[in-house]
Recover the amino acids of this structure.
């Protein structure tokens, strides 16, 4: 994923990134995993996007929010309220 190829103005950048992600079969597979309640697997799939987006960029932080959301779902299943609260707050 080439962030340098994205436009610099925020609205165009947002649209271009959304188009890149929705055209990416790995992104769509991660969404399918999440929607099928395979939260840990979705977490793992989204992590590669988080790294590819630079981990600290606004785009990467959005993906990191999804990662925390999936971690919260795992903690719900484990019955770990503190983990649910922590990951939900981070998401």
């Amino acid at each position: 994923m080439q962030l340098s190829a994205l436009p610099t103005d925020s609205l165009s950048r947002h649209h271009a990134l959304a188009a890149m992600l929705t055209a990416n079969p790995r992104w769509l597979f991660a969404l399918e995993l999440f929607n099928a309640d395979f939260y840990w697997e979705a977490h793992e799939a989204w992590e590669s996007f988080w790294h590819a987006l630079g981990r600290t960029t606004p785009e990467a932080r959005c993906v990191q929010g999804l990662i925390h959301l999936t971690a919260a779902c795992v903690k719900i299943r484990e019955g770990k309220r503190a983990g649910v609260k922590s990951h939900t707050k981070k998401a």
